[in-house]
Protein: Nicotinate-nucleotide--dimethylbenzimidazole phosphoribosyltransferase
Amino acid sequence: IPETAGSAARHRMDLKAKPLGSLGALEDLAVQLCAVQKTLAPRIERKAMVIFAADHGVAEEGVSAYPPEVTARMVDTFARGRAAINVLSRLHGLDLTVVDMGVRGAVTPQGQIVNKRIGPGTRNSALQEAMTPREALESLRRGREAFQEVMERGGPVDLAGFGEMGIGNTTAASAIIALATGKTASEVAGRGTGLDDQGLRRKIEVLEKMIALHGAPPGERLDGLAILRSVGGFEIGGIAGALLAAASARAMVVLDGLISTAAGVIAVMIEPAVRDYMVVSHASVERGHRAACEFLGVRPLLDLSLRLGEGSGAALAMPVIESAAAIMREMASLEEAGLVPPPGLIPPTSI
Amino acid sequence: IPETAGSAARHRMDLKAKPLGSLGALEDLAVQLCAVQKTLAPRIERKAMVIFAADHGVAEEGVSAYPPEVTARMVDTFARGRAAINVLSRLHGLDLTVVDMGVRGAVTPQGQIVNKRIGPGTRNSALQEAMTPREALESLRRGREAFQEVMERGGPVDLAGFGEMGIGNTTAASAIIALATGKTASEVAGRGTGLDDQGLRRKIEVLEKMIALHGAPPGERLDGLAILRSVGGFEIGGIAGALLAAASARAMVVLDGLISTAAGVIAVMIEPAVRDYMVVSHASVERGHRAACEFLGVRPLLDLSLRLGEGSGAALAMPVIESAAAIMREMASLEEAGLVPPPGLIPPTSI
Structure:
């Protein structure tokens, strides 16, 4: 993204009829969106939400409060339009797609479920690599493809949210964040869907095993693809691929919570330019989320104590991002409101 | 609000197809809304935003970075549909009304501006009481009337946001908060529209004068009306009156930043039951806002570093509140999703 689009947008925002900086995070969002869309009049017409679902071999280790069967049950609930993300997508006008990247149980093909299955879940990453190198690449490719199909079906996407479903995936995401940032197991482990103290201790032990098994040798660093292959999930690879596709199409991307932000970490390790297109929708209750946001250098927009996933936080952030676009487009300048710009902010003739 | 409506709603929310508590603040909002509307299927059909504008005698003391003329300019900008709050109201479907409670300059009667003028601004509260006892009561009465007229014009309001415009009103609001909570001038003073360090020191001195002049004698406490009269503004009284009217009509009310939350403090001092109807939309950058929220016992929903006023933060919070209502109404239960409720959460037959 050229620096000039951003600085012209910042200048225009500074000249709006308001005290300098008084719209806080909305101003930064508007400027980012102008840079993404290369315009001073950003528009958000089509909003898409894509949920990637898959199962995780590491769930065998007893790291979740729920059994793996729940992944398929929730995918069915998405298909029937009754989960939280369906409700939020209807309310906020998001075009919702659910992508089966490798759910373990049988998924009934119905509604908006897209089949991009790689296999019936990953292998147990506490014992071996979660995916083969080929599967890891395939997860990225199919995620990219799924997003491209969303665009082929309904036209260009201005704002794309990414969510997930997969029992065991807070463990996979926490391991990704630990391997990418160098944090320890206890610095990234959270309670997921609701582990008690004993369950959390167990999850930390499993994460320690995963980090010991897959961590880089001293003095070396893992690349994004190696981290994805060793501990990641098919849905996490899918989101990373979709993020790359969305950024290529100049869509603003909205990450949800722990898992989709971990996918953001993988995507940025593969292609650092993707970061300019990203918004992190909310601060998750999960511990590892903060480390992932710091790694990305992105401040979460909302803090509603969410820990559901499904893209629910991303859906809630979208009206805020739309607000930023509308402010940039429609709000009067100081001059139009009959007010005097503060000294030093006289518009250059070039704008 | 009966306790039973809230606890039945909490139980129903606990049985939704999600980990217990995983929708965080959205769950609390949904439960509050059920209690306000006395239903387990809350609806938000009509959303209203009412902006109260007035000038402040205390502006003479040099407590703002902008001159009082700006109040009238911004009211004109509201009327022409070009301010931030117009943009946000259009985007989020809010019925916007602007109420002139006593702007100093000439306000051209146009568009949605309602005339409830008490006078050309308050008196200088650093030297004397801002209002006569009669004016204070009148500000409450006219605010109440303005909200009732919004309902008469367009039907019942489910969600009501209150914003303001008035150069000098962060000083008035900070003084209200200091007098209500016992905080000192420097604990409640902020930079308003953009004071520099010297301006902030000046504002603290003026606030110290106001607190010394109007504070209660040792061992006594001021009531809400006395605080409003001594340091408040016509627009702050207007918001307080509108809050009382909205709660009477069982509308959920959304406070904006420092000034409307100070009006919330006045309203709750007059009628403590109003608190059950309140949401504080966002944490303002202004220092005194935190003290006001603590006084009300309400946690702000968003934190976007806003300090514009106009109701902008309240407008941004509305889609989150609508989301909470939709989740409560439309999301599947655990049972409907084919999932097992956690032990201890078997629904009682009475629900």
Observations:
- Chain A touches chain B through 58 residues (CB under 8 Å).
- Chain A has one domain: 47-320.
- Residues 347-351 of chain A have pLDDT under 50 and may be disordered.
- Residues 36 and 250 of chain A are 6 Å apart (CA to CA).
